Amino acid sequence: MLSKLRIGLVCPYGWDTPGGVQNHVRDLAEYLIAKGHYVSVLTPVIDESAIPDYVVSAGKPIAIPYNGAVARILFGPIAFARVRNWISEGNFDLLHLHEPAIPSISLLACWAAEGPMIGTFHAAAGRQKVIFALGPILEPVIEKLSARIAVSEAARETLAEHLETDAVVVPNGIYADRYRDGEKLKKWSGNTIGFIGRFEEPRKGLAILLEALPIIARFAPDVRVLVAGPGDSKEFSEAIDPQLRHRFEFLGRISEKEKADFLSSIAVYVAPNTGGESFGIILAEALAGGATVVASDIPAFDSLLGHGEFGALFESENPQELAKVVIDLLRNPKRRTDLSIRGKAYAQRFNWDVVAEDIFSIYEMSLVGNSGVRLSSENRAWNRFLGRDTN
Amino acid sequence: MEKYFLLIFLILFGAWYLTYSATRLDRLHHRVETSWANLDSLLQKRAAVALEIAKSKIADPASALILTAAARGARDARMQNRSQAESGLSGALGLLLNDGHLVDGLIEKELLQELSELTNKIRVAIALHVDAVSRTQMVRTKKVNRIFRLAGRAPLPVVYEFEADVL
Q1: Does A230 map to a domain?
Q2: From CA A156, how far away is CA B75, in angstroms rounded?
Q3: Which of B24, B35, B124 sits opposite A140 (nearest CB)?
């Protein structure tokens, strides 16, 4: 490895709200710190008293609807001043900006800085007219990045389509070894369908599973659904059809160890998400835990599961097809084992060791011929013309 | 009076826009230079590793001869012949390593490991360079940049042939 670096990470979404991007930035920052680098993370924060010391607050995030979901982002002149301040005082060797095409502080940092900058694009979405309209504004900013990373093939395609630029694919990281040696527990095995996540959120798609369940129960009378994750299970189960209620079991939040056991015990893991997913870290974890995965065919899941090679896919928001796929797997233990063995081996590539090394080698490439990050100046061309040194 | 203000405003805006465009172009050229420097240094390293492999037990005498010649060629090639030389080295390495013979010995394994890591890096470096070049080409064809010759005497960046099929 290269000598120790000063790395600035920018996370566009509120640090203390749950989300894939935030988790990714946190894990990456902690990995780099453990390797001995200096890391500072600039991010919007709601509660400034509860942040680790490598995090710098850029202010309170604003919740606004963007791209079909409520995003907690931050912009405006005060935030911009803080971003500029952080850059000029940080004396960084390089900046790593997450989601620089979202109107938040990553974009501001990309605007304000000059030097080695890497952008990671998480979002995977279909064609969106609004982004085409924003293209001419975004392009000159985004092209300052010395390297672009997309977290999946789907994100890479989204980027190519909307901003006409290519990216290197480096997936999000997981700690695969935490899930490798789960125990098969009797209470969770049998004809069980597992689900992990905030089940109250409609986009997580538990409602689709609910609709599919009567059909599944006809073919597998002893089928049970195990739901793990935070949320008000009492209120939720009251809304479930009384005929089906006894099939549900809510486990609440579970520990990492329990998660490993859960994933090795259940018959199938179902992810019926209807959209808004950038990568699908939970699927990678489920694969690493040796679960047989069934997921909706939204772009992020489709590309994570290798178009069906490492887990079964069903047409998003189609309960009949979900039922069909699940029944098929419940009846066919051999196919289930095949999928889970292949999936487990495949999930090793998402391990943080592999992922962080890939990211770091891109860091090294961007450092060639550059002399650190500084505030950008629009006089660059003049300085060049007058023969002043700007490198 | 108002007309003058408008005129002054337009001139100022025009000046700002020209400066802005020139800055943008300058940055892009810088990106092309650095991404090329990066790719170039990785390719040099690859040539060095190839020479090591030629000297090691991995290569039989005949392959060693071919590999040494190709690696030296790649290292010393001038810009005009670079494409040919790098493709030649890729071909020579491919011939030697893809015939499926087993390699034992610690040093040999390390060499091959190093080569495969380098190859992965080169693949990324190529993607970065190609992206920088195509972006620069695209921006340079914009009217304002052509009319005001904002690119100055900087040569139009091009992608070399070998970048399409190296390894």
Answers
A1: yes
A2: 34
A3: B24
Quick count: other Cβ atoms within 10 Å of Cβ A154?
A: 25
- A148:B41 CB<8 A: no
A391 interaction partners in chain B (CB closer than 8 Å): 30
- Please judge whether A378 and B25 are an interchain contact, meaning their C-beta atoms are less than 8 angstroms apart: no
- At a CB cut-off of 8 Å and minimum separation 6, what does B15 contact? none
Nearest to B71 by CA among B49, B96, B40: B49
Q: Measure A62 CA to nearest chain B CA, in Å.
A: 31
> Which residue does chain A place closest to B32, by CA atoms?
A146
CATH assignment at residue A322: 3.40.50.2000
Contact assignment for A140 to B25 by CB distance below 8 Å: no
Residue type, A105: I
Kindly state whether residues A268 and A365 are assigned to the same domain: no
pLDDT by residue for chain A (391 residues), tens only, comes to 457 899 999 999 999 888 889 999 999 999 999 999 999 999 999 998 889 999 999 999 999 887 666 788 999 999 999 999 999 999 999 999 999 988 899 999 999 999 999 999 998 776 677 777 777 888 889 889 999 999 988 889 888 888 888 899 999 999 988 898 888 898 998 899 999 988 888 888 899 999 999 999 999 889 999 999 888 888 888 888 888 888 999 998 898 899 999 999 999 999 999 887 778 889 999 999 999 999 999 988 998 999 999 999 999 999 999 999 999 999 999 999 999 999 999 999 999 999 999 999 999 999 987 778 988 876 565 666 666 554 4
Residues A132 and A241 occupy one common structural domain: no
Which residues in chain A have Cβ-Cβ distances shorter than 8 Å to B131? 148, 165-166
Residues A267 and A373 in one domain: no
**ipTM attached to this prediction:** 0.82
Q: Do B22 and A381 touch (CB under 8 A)?
A: yes
Cβ distance of A143 and B35 shorter than 8 Å: no
Closest alpha carbon to A13 in A67, A58, A68, A78: A58
List the domain boundaries for chain B.
38-164
Optimal mutation site among B20, B26, B141, B153, interface A, most CBs of chain A within 10 A:
B26
Q: Which DSSP helix (H) or strand (E) runs through A347? A: helix A333-347
- Considering only CA atoms, which of B108, B121, B100 is closest in space to residue B167? B121
Q: Could you give the number of structural domains in chain A?
A: 2
pTM (predicted TM-score): 0.85
- Are A127 and A207 members of one domain? no
Say yes or no: A61 and A146 in one domain. Answer: yes
Residues in chain B with CB shorter than 8 Å from the CB of A362 are 124
3-state SS class at A158: helix
Residue contacts between A and B (CB atoms, under 8 Å): 62
**Residues A380, B34: C-beta atoms closer than 8 Å:** no
Q: Which of A166, A368, A369 sits opposite B127 (nearest CB)?
A: A166
**Judgement on whether residues A378 and A327 belong to the same structural domain of the protein:** no
Pairing label, strands A6-10, A113-114: unpaired
Range of the domain at A282: 177-349
What's the gap in Å between the CA of A346 and the closest CA on chain B?
Answer: 18
